[in-house]
Amino acid sequence: MKPSLRGILSILLVLALAVALVGCGGEKPAEDANKETPADKLKVAFIYVGPVGDGGYSYAHDLGRQYLQKEIPDVETTFIESVPEGADAERVLSELAEKGNKVIFATSFGYMDPVIKVAQKYPDVTFLHCSGYKTADNVGTYFGRMYQARYLSGVVAGKATQSNTIGYVAAFPIPEVIRGINAFTLGVQSVNPNAKVKVVWTNTWYDPAAEKEAGKSLLQAGADVIAQHQDTAGPQQAAEEAGKFGIGYNSDMSKMAPKAVMTSAVWNWGPYYVNTIKAIQAGTWKSEQYWGPMSDNVVDLAPFGPMVSEESKQLVEAKKQEIISGKWDVFTGPIKDQSGQVKVAEGQKMSDAEMLSFDWFVQGVDGTIPK
Fold first, then answer.
1. SS3 string of 203-241?
2. One domain for residues 127 and 224
3. Where are the beta strands (DSSP E) in 284-341?
4. Residue 79 in 3-state DSSP?
5. Are 325 and 201 members of one domain?
6. pLDDT tens digit sequence for 48-87
7. Which of 83, 218, 281, 347 is deepest in the core (most CB within 10 A)?
8. Is there a single domain that holds both residue 206 and residue 353?
9. pLDDT for 10 beyond 70
10. Model's pTM, two decimal places?
11. Is residue 140 located within the same domain as residue 158?
12. CA torsion through residues 92, 97, 98, 99, sign
């Protein structure tokens, strides 16, 4: 039976459509030519000194990374945790640059020299180093004025202590940690001049057992409030087990020790990470030493626990507004050192350079700074 003319035309039409579809499959349509593919994404990497599960420092940075990923979907973020400071950091930084990461956030003080060294080999990569002070054309530093939140948390501790001995578990005797201890102590003494802040050094950022033991030693020495500059909630857990109170750090540590934690001095890195990446994408980023104040929301206090009095809350809020407005800042004189010598005269304010190089304790601190 011969095919009809209509049948022949139908067959030819089907064949023509098939050829057209095959052609479209081998070439991206014009309207999709400018659409982003995964390969086009800006690759951003983070290296952490501890695990993201530390509940503290690295955890706070990773919350910032997650915020960045959510706010800027066309960025691809990765992280490597528990990277020791030193030669290992240099190796990891180099590997991240080789894998195509164009922005690398190195989040610990001890990464500073490795960052500077690796950055020289990868001039097309932007490196941001947290808490350091060395820069280059493609290296910037960033940090926040945590001393402002420290002072406010000191007000809470000073109002809460009954023994007038407050323990402070401290990591390393570097200016950042010393500055925090001093700010906290000034806050304590602003509401309780009889209270002392007793310091114990652990010489580690991340060691849950050592941090907890240091907290226990301070409790045994008479402290009834435990503060810290450490990466885990170990000191807060020691306070809770002893039926005492504490001040957390890095992130809200109330989940780890709800009966002890009155508040925490916390980091909020997300907005900084977003602003930095937007500047890099726009081509407007320049190397700088960013030291953000509380008014930038990079540092703050976590919500108060139920054990914090209304009086304490009101005192903190009043002082917080003074800090945010710029009318007053923590290291405004008169300030004396441990020996009673006036280091900052009344009405004077310490410069950033002076605060960034702290190597002495204020009056009210019970402890020494190892050489």
1. CCCCCHHHHHHHHHHHHHCCCCEEEEECCCCHHHHHHHH
2. no
3. 289-292, 299-301, 335-336
4. strand
5. yes
6. 999 998 889 999 999 999 999 999 999 999 999 999 998 9
7. 218
8. yes
9. no
10. 0.87
11. no
12. positive
Same domain? For 63 and 98 the reply is yes
Does residue 334 have a cis bond before it (omega within 30 degrees)? Answer: yes
Residues 231, 356 within the same domain: yes
Cα–Cα distances in Å, from 177 out to 55, 83, 229, 290, 369?
19, 21, 7, 18, 11
- Tell me whether residue 31 is in a domain: no
Q: Are residues 170 and 227 in the same domain?
A: yes
Q: What is the DSSP string of 138-154?
A: TEEEEEE-HHHHHHHHH
Q: What is the CATH number of the domain that holds 133?
A: 3.40.50.2300
Q: What's at 168, amino acid-wise? A: Y
Q: Which residue has the tokens 């509380």?
A: 294
CA angle 235, 241, 242 (to 5 degrees): 90
Q: How is 94-134 classified by DSSP, letter by letter?
A: HHHHHTT-SEEEE-SGGGHHHHHHHHHH-TTSEEEEES---
Domain span including residue 95: 40-144
- 126 and 159 together in one domain: no
User: Are the C-beta atoms of residues 88 and 111 closer than 8 Å to each other?
Assistant: no
Return the structure tokens found at 245: 């109170």
For the chain, what is the domain count?
Answer: 2
Question: Which single residue is written with the structure tokens 């003319």?
Answer: 5
Q: Residue 159 gets which letter from DSSP?
A: H
179 within some domain: yes
Q: Which of 172, 193, 227 is nearest to 371 (CA)?
A: 172
267-285 pLDDT, tens digit per residue, is 999 999 999 999 999 999 9
Residue type (1 letter), 180: G
The first and second tokens of residue 182, run together, are 């001093």
pLDDT at residue 55, rounded to an integer: 87
281-328: pLDDT as tens digits: 999 999 999 999 999 999 999 999 999 999 999 999 999 999 999 999
